[in-house]
Specification:
367 residues; D-Maltodextrin-Binding Protein, domain 2; eight-stranded mixed β-sheet; five-stranded mixed β-sheet; 18% strand; globular
Length: 367
């Protein structure tokens, strides 16, 4: 039997006012990258090196996922504030990052890691691959998303809640009522309209599975059986689902319901998120045990919680900032509001039950 958590849902600790700056309509949401088991070779990108000082203290290296992106002005600000050049090493997605870090405790490939989320946070913690550090800026919001009993080994930087997205224009054009809840996907009137994600190969797919488990711990397997019997498609990754099969995606597919993020409607007008179906996915930064630049890594953690970075996160990576009073871009409050309630399962609970849940999910959907 799965280990039972202390709770399955929680109120969000913050709300954000509307921003006073424009929103760039660029769809950069790649965090649905496929989770692969093998650790691939990493590709490094050195950003803005303007100093002749080549001592170890002049550079800090960040290991992160393939979708990490921030404006050059942010990296310039880091160098100006700290005197350090930031070297970015990209390596897969959240699951791959967790594996890479967990396999190299004490002999890290970088000074810090960003992008491990709460579905995999327990791996590097249990592997003793991280240093404890509590940023003085964390009290302004980040600490509200801390991993329980982790001794500050991971610091929350952003959240990107996984939930169902609906093409409202598709339904209005046909004079039909759009689904309003998770449960609606089992109804005959929504037959063959949804495209979902395999939780064994997709990070948001795993998040959505956890949303269904957190919503109904006893009946979630029956829910999945009914949804698939009602014609829901299941594909391997977010790119296929959203950009090829979703009717509001780039490929203008045939499916008006898709698993994505609460923030996705900000980039796709005419769509909305079903906010009763969201799993809170939090991304963290951590200092790698064995770093040769501990002071630089701490400065990087502080910097990622600064207003300079937090206000750039929505436009750059389509995620919500965790620091309080960080403005959202124009239009986000209307099209992509922060969910006021989400499913929130402890990382240790997820780790203890992940493989069992995946096997039960396969049985429920006939895979």
């Amino acid at each position: 039997m799965p280990t039972r958590p202390s709770g399955t849902g929680s109120r969000d600790p913050q709300d954000h006012p509307t921003a006073d700056r424009g929103h760039r309509g660029v769809r950069r949401r790649l965090r649905g990258a496929t989770v692969i088991a093998a650790v691939a070779a990493v590709a490094a990108t050195v950003l803005a090196a303007c100093s002749d000082d080549t001592s170890s203290g002049a550079e800090v290296t960040l290991l992160t996922h393939d979708s990490f992106t921030l404006p050059d002005s942010v990296f310039d600000a880091f160098r100006q504030q700290t005197g350090l050049t930031l070297k970015v090493v990209r390596s897969g997605d959240a699951g791959q990052l967790a594996s890479t870090v967990s396999l190299t405790p004490g002999s890290p490939k970088a000074d810090a890691v960003f992008g491990i989320d709460n579905t995999f946070a327990s791996r590097p913690i249990e592997a003793k691959a991280l240093e404890s550090y509590r940023s003085p800026l964390a009290a302004n919001g980040s600490a509200d998303y801390a991993v329980p009993d982790s001794d500050d080994q991971l610091t929350a930087v952003d959240r990107g809640d996984v939930c169902l997205n609906v093409d409202d224009s598709w339904y209005s054009d046909r004079g039909l009522a759009a689904p309003q809840s998770l449960r609606d996907l089992t109804e005959p009137r929504y037959r063959d309209q949804a495209v979902l994600l395999d939780p064994a190969t997709s990070s948001p797919g795993l998040g959505f599975l956890l949303a269904t488990i957190g919503t109904d711990q006893r009946g979630w397997r029956d829910y999945w059986s009914k949804v698939t019997a009602n014609g829901a498609s299941i594909v391997s990754g977010w790119e296929i689902a959203y950009n090829q099969l979703f009717s509001a995606g780039e490929g203008k597919g045939a499916k008006p319901i898709v698993v994505s993020y609460a923030s996705s409607p900000a980039a796709t007008p005419g769509t909305s998120a079903i906010l009763d179906s969201c799993f809170r996915q939090v991304e963290y930064v951590g200092i790698l045990r064995g770093t040769r630049n501990l002071d630089g890594a701490r400065k990087l953690v502080d910097f990622l919680l600064s207003e300079t970075v937090q206000r750039e996160l929505p436009d750059s990576m389509y995620v919500y900032p965790v620091q309080r009073d960080t403005p959202l871009p124009d239009g986000w409050q209307a099209r992509a509001p922060v969910p006021r309630w989400t499913i929130n399962l402890p990382p240790t609970y997820i780790a203890a039950n992940r493989e069992q849940w995946l096997q039960q999910w396969r049985e429920a959907v006939g895979r």
